[in-house]
Write a structure and sequence with these properties.
elongated; two-stranded antiparallel sheet; Arc Repressor Mutant, subunit A; alpha+beta; 5 helices; 165 residues; three-stranded mixed sheet
Length: 165
């Protein structure tokens, strides 16, 4: 630990640095038997949202999107995406086949894109990380736990440039 040296009588700094060492606990690699343990899968689990506890937020979110000049449509979507935001057409589409809580999560995510967090401005990877961080914070503020989807989603875009969902 580098410590600034002080004069013993006046207590003022001398301008020199003294290196001190601190005792810390350590272990030896021989104390860990790595051969008998299966390696852990470090990929975060993806837990899809279920339920309808926050369905009451869909209408206010749709109205909010309207204040940004966007229309919201609920349509059956095929594939892993729960929705999309077309900033040119000012249109957000959410999968109507998903549970209500998943629709809330998706609508928050797409409204964040509607706020101007787009691929042109930030690049695809950064835009997806930003809007899903917004999604996590906004959903958490109303008691909707989206970590099971948001954590692997953000981790995937931040690390590899694509979603792990």
């Amino acid at each position: 630990m580098p410590i600034k040296d002080r004069d013993r009588t006046s207590g003022e700094e001398t301008g020199e640095t003294v290196a001190l060492f601190k005792a810390v606990s350590v272990f030896d690699r021989r104390q860990v038997d790595l051969d008998s343990v299966e390696p852990l899968d470090l990929k975060p689990p993806c837990v899809p949202l279920t339920g309808d506890s926050h369905a009451h937020l869909l209408a206010p979110l749709e109205r909010f999107a309207g204040t940004l000049g966007f229309t919201v449509a609920f349509e059956r979507l095929d594939g892993p995406a729960g929705g999309w935001c077309d900033t040119d057409a000012k249109r957000i589409v959410v999968d109507d086949g998903a549970p209500d809580n998943a629709q809330v999560r998706t609508l928050i995510h797409e409204v964040a894109h509607a706020h101007g967090v787009g691929y042109a401005e930030y690049g695809r990877e950064r835009a997806e990380v930003i809007v899903d961080c917004v999604t996590f914070i906004a959903a958490s503020s109303v008691g909707l736990d989206v970590a099971g989807e948001s954590v692997p989603y953000v981790a995937g875009w931040a690390r590899t440039g694509r979603s792990r969902r």
